[in-house]
């Protein structure tokens, strides 16, 4: 089995909304696939279909070779899932949450307790093990949630926006934990709307928007596809921003993004740089910054979808 | 990686064991939050005290006499309110994502719901016990025998089990747990009051009597009264069971359908 998770033509509609409009994806065993897209793109829906929580309206998917619809019970034995919203029982303690899952999985009590202790130590929750989960901080809750999805040592792990809403430190800690799990051989399907997160963790990225796959590749391939580099120009005079935008649009044939006085555009060919310099010079524009650098995934996203990745607060339909 | 053998399906025995584990969860919740136990202890005690001392003298002459008439009905009414905890708990699981986590585990499809309902039967048994004790302290007398009492409790628990499906439906449809409780009060109060729980049917206007005679609460209260205090019980026991069956027949499929739609 080279593909741990494989999906073809997944369609899911909710009333008039098409959450998935024919999604294909494949995750090689032992790798991390980043499912990247803005709020409402269909990431959670895709994960829920692959986790047997939702039945697709069309298309099919297998996990470990088992069909997610017809062999759902088998699939459930292979997966661990951490939902977008930490799904721990808030009234139970951290230790009890993990014990509960161990017991449900049929692990004898003593072993389930030992496994809970082991996970709590691994996720640095030993000190809070006896406290109700509702007293946990956001980062602790996510760690407990992650621990809960690992009780049965699943070979496949779904992480739906695991770091959304966490502060940078908690986020970095969680990244470290995820890397550790990948190193131990777990196949991971990770959804995120943070482009740097996909860049950090994923071996391969599938970009989705409005329920459709709009690009697939390694982080480097995607950057190459959308323009390997980004040209950034900052005119000294704010009134020149429009002129700069026109010039870079014409020469790069990309749509520039303007942020304050900084104009950026993805470029495929570094040879545009001399042309831009000449044209700006002719137009009498003085620049304080002119640089060619590797694209961030944010810029990649912009050039792939034609719109910027929205902030989580906007379009808060999910 | 330890790759355990993949089972093709879950056995009924496994499902029952999982149900017990999930019911254990609810019991642990109570242990952590004894105030919750207070919620369904204080309310029934208040009911007994209020009805005994506010209505008791006026309706039956003495509080002991009134309690002997009203306590079985108060237990029925309280039982209906306690069933609402099934819906509140389920709704909390649904809104917090716990239900999704459970559904992603290789366990019986029916175990999460069964565990929830089973655990609440423990709460039911507790509040029935509490009401009987308080009632007896205030002058309620069992007029039959232990067998009658146990039969009454068994009937009440059976009806509670059936009525839990109404609660499940409300729990699935409600937006948040508070609304489940709100429904409990706005819908259950009229149903329980327009019965023979607090006053005898023959004191009411005729049009009201028609509904009172149909009301399952009336039949259940009559049955409980007959079994605990004495008097005819067979008819009302049968009617209570018919009602219980009818409620399950309507609300179990509706609940399961609504749950499938929601998740
Ligand atoms: N249960 C549901 N009922 C109705 N619409 C839904 C439901 N779940 C998701 N949607 C809609 O489907 C689209 C995709 O949602 P989702 O998969 O949650 O996106 P993401 O996780 O990428 O933010 C959104 O437009 C969302 O409003
Ligand atoms: Mg989502």
TrEMBL record, chain B:
The keyword Coiled coil does not apply. The chain crosses the membrane at residues 40-60, 66-86, 125-143, 149-173, 180-199, 237-259. It comes from the Bacteria. It is found in: Cell membrane; Membrane. Its main location: membrane. It is a multi-pass membrane protein. Keywords: Antibiotic resistance, Cell membrane, Membrane, Transmembrane, Transmembrane helix, Transport. Residues 35-262 form the ABC transmembrane type-2 domain. This is Transport permease protein. It comes from Phytohabitans aurantiacus. The lineage of its organism: Bacteria, Bacillati, Actinomycetota, Actinomycetes, Micromonosporales.
